[in-house]
Design goal:
Rossmann fold
């Protein structure tokens, strides 16, 4: 068992990328439904405001820190997280595993046509990967029943839900008792990146944990969201001090 670090009430698995990938591989060999969440500072800040959402994140079988702010905050609690485990990178590791095992995936999310374009890119890169189905992320709650049936009928092993937080986590958790996939993972805007609709930050920014800065440079209007990072770190600092 890997340890967990609790930050502001949310339990984060203290794993590096290789360890997280090994856990995912184990999920695929099992017979249970595993929820995988990759929260960053902004998502954890939302969980602090919304205790129901906190419970959803804590219900995940694998919860990794997708954000340098989460890693920084963990240091206040005396057990630093090993490293940032970027959701996009973990998703691609999962695709490698699925490819080697001949697994199938269902892509849910993005605007009309995005999931289909992402599916094409994935099949071009991974010859053994099977696309069980695709669907855009624009639907009402009364359509969820048919979506669940469609995913189950596809016999997909993996569901990649790119609905944005917290919608994707709520969807994954809400249908825990009905979805028949082995892994359901919230992947945010990753399908847009795969489809070529959004350009990911250069490797330098990724390795330095500064993807947020690159996005801010490209989209200055994100400043309000980015300001959540220092707020989250400050909250974690005072929370950790209060527990000493």
């Amino acid at each position: 068992m890997y340890g967990k670090v609790e930050i502001l009430g949310i339990k984060i698995d203290n794993v590096d990328m290789d360890e997280a990938a090994d856990i995912l591989s184990g999920f695929l060999h099992g017979n249970t439904y595993s929820k995988v969440f990759t929260p960053n500072s902004e998502i954890l800040l939302e969980a602090v405001r919304d205790r129901e959402f906190e419970g959803i994140l804590n219900s995940g079988q694998l919860v990794v820190p997708d954000g340098i702010g989460v890693v920084v905050a963990s240091k206040f609690y005396g057990t630093p997280l090993k490293e940032r485990v970027a959701g996009m990178d973990l998703m691609m590791r999962l695709m490698n595993i699925a490819d080697s095992q001949g697994r199938s995936i269902y892509l849910l999310g993005g605007r009309e046509g995005v999931a289909e374009e992402a599916a094409i890119k994935l099949t071009e890169e991974y010859g053994g990967l099977k696309i069980a189905g695709t669907r855009n992320g624009y639907f009402d709650s009364d359509e969820e029943e048919s979506i669940i049936n469609e995913i189950n009928s596809s016999n997909a092993d993996i569901l990649l839900a790119a609905l944005g937080a917290p919608k994707q986590e709520r969807f994954i958790c809400k249908h825990s008792d009905r979805l028949k996939v082995k892994i359901a993972m919230g992947v945010g805007g990753s399908l847009d990146v795969l489809a070529g609709k959004v350009k990911r930050a250069p490797v330098f920014y990724q390795k330095a944990g500064l993807e947020w800065l690159y996005r801010l440079i490209k989209e200055p209007r994100r400043i309000v969201r980015v300001m959540g990072i220092p707020k989250f770190i400050a909250l974690a600092f005072f929370d950790a001090k209060s527990k000493l």
